[in-house]
Amino acid sequence: MSFDAEWAQHKALARSAPAPAPAPDTSGGGPAGTLVAGSSSINGNANLLIEIAALLHEGRPDGDASTMARAPRAHTEVAEQVLRFAAFADDQFKDTVALFAGLATRLKTTGTAFARVDDDTARSFLAGLLSSGQYVPPECK
Q1: Which pTM value belongs to this model?
Q2: What pLDDT score was predicted for residue 79?
Q3: Which of 5, 26, 67, 130 is deepest in the core (most CB within 10 A)?
């Protein structure tokens, strides 16, 4: 399959996909606003960042590609520039993989803190309900 045909197929698939859900209203519908993220979505996104970093690492630049442009196969100046570019590309590649891994770690930490805060909120709600709640029989309502 040619690139143009494959690209057209991907565009058609993207156009036929359902429209994304509208963003939640965070204008303060309640006293504490609305919940926008959940710990499962935060952890899922962190896992996705780790997968991207792993895929980048698996598709890392081939070290042998730059050796084909060394002297005597290529002019000395060309070989120097290819080696310089290969070193730069390798440095940028390693920085990108490290960035994705670092972001995933930070997102995992955020997800853990979010779950802790969410748990504390639920516990305080239940404690308040138990301490100041009052039972009203159904027939008295």
Answers
A1: 0.52
A2: 86
A3: 67
